[in-house]
Structure formats: structure tokens, C-alpha cells
Amino acid sequence: MPDEVIGAPGKTTIFNTIWLNERVKCDLSTELVEYLFLHEHGHASRSPTARLKFIVLTVSLASLTVGFICLTIAVGVIGVLDPIYSLVQGAIAVLIGIVFATLTGKGYLRVIRNEELHAELNVVHELGTEEFRRRHELFEETRDRGPIEVLQRRLFYPTMDMVVAASQDQ
Ligand SMILES: [Zn+2]
Predict the structure, then answer these.
(1) How many folded domains does the chain comprise?
(2) How far is the CA of 121 from the centre of ligand 1 (A)?
(3) For residue 114, how far is its CA from the centre of ligand 1 (angstroms)?
(4) Which of 64, 74, 88, 114 is exposed most, by the fewest CB atoms within 10 A?
(5) Can you state the angle between helices 87-127 and 48-81, rounded to 10 degrees?
(6) Confidence class of residue 13 from pLDDT cuts 50, 70 and 90?
(7) Partners of 18 in beta bridges
(8) Strand partners, 10
(9) 70 C-alpha vs ligand 1 centroid, how far in Å?
(10) pLDDT at 67
(11) Which of 150, 138, 116, 129 is nearest to 28 (CA)?
(12) Residue 84 and residue 98: Cα distance in Å, rounded?
């Protein structure tokens, strides 16, 4: 797939086909393309139930988070503008809204991170811990990411040590 179409290095579609980014594929060595493929294969080999659960959870948690944020803003504005409510009541309502938005937001991140963990665990199973570590490090060194990608990586992906620890727990 061309770079403009997929953006990310690799993607697994809901139809279980794996897309690799042509530009990234050209830039990476064969062993890193294999690493990427094994990661995506980890997503693709998930059971239909796990896949459905992932989609339902991400969509509902994301909508809930957005909903709570909007509601919090609305309540805050009403609290300030409407003389019926005291500022303290408004502040309490806003705080509750922030707590709920944070909880659903965190849940959303957790669901995605868990899915990425499964994909990475597939790499560990196929290559072994040492080889996984080596290629993961090499992959991270090779990928030259912008600040948004770096942030996405931190939020949505487990660290290498977390993956290794999880593989040893299994
Ligand atoms: Zn992934």
C-alpha cells in the first residue's frame, strides 16, 4: 500500500488482510519487515470474538470519553452563566465530568495497548525473547518519528520490557 493510503508502517484490516506500507518496506531491512509482518499477523490471528470485543470497546469508550468531555464543557458553561447554580455546584459537576472522562479515556488506551501487546507477543513467540528485543530495538532506532507519532507510540503501545514480562507470565 502506498504511504499516503496507510500512514502507519503496517495495518491489519477488519477483513484480516495485512497491509504493509510500501515506503516503510523499502526503507527497512528484510528482518525488520518480517518483524512488522509478525506484529500485524498477531492482530490478524485474533479470534473473531476478541476482534469484536476490541471494536465494541474502543468505539464505545471513545464515544463515552468525547461525550463526557462535551457534557463537562456544557455543564461548566451553564454553571457559570446560569444564576440558578452556584459556582461551587458548577465546579463539583465539572470535576465529576473530568473524573468520568479520565476513566473512560484511560479504559480506551488500555484496550488499545492490550491489543498491541497481543500483536507484539506474537513476535516474541515466533522469534524468541532475545531476537524480539534485538529487532524491536533496531526497529525503534530505524523509525524516524515526528512528535505526534512519538506521543502515539507512548500512549498506545506497551514498552519492550512490558511485552517480555507478559510473555514470561504466559
Ligand atoms: Zn499493532
Answers:
(1) 1
(2) 11
(3) 10
(4) 88
(5) 160
(6) confident
(7) 12
(8) 20
(9) 29
(10) 96
(11) 138
(12) 22
Which pLDDT belongs to residue 71?
A: 94
How many A from CA of 118 to the centre of ligand 1? 9
Please tell me the distance between residue 43's alpha carbon and the centre of ligand 1 in angstroms: 7
Q: What distance in angstroms lies between residue 11's CA and the mean position of ligand 1's atoms?
A: 7
Judged against a pLDDT cut of 80, whether residue 110 lies above it is answered with: yes
C-alpha 165 to ligand 1 mean position (Å): 18
d(CA 162, CA 121): 10
Q: Which residues, in sequence order, are CB contacts of 134 under 8 Å at separation 6+?
A: none
Domain range for 32 is 3-169
Residue 154 C-alpha to ligand 1 middle, in angstroms? Answer: 13
Tell me 14's DSSP state. T
User: How many Å lie between the centroid of ligand 1 and the Cα of residue 64?
Assistant: 23
Residues 6+ apart with CB under 8 A from 136: 35, 120, 123, 160, 163
**Measured CA angle at 100 (ends 117, 107), to 5 deg:** 10
C-alpha cell at 127: 522469534
Q: Which of 9, 105, 107, 7 is nearest to 54 (CA)?
A: 107
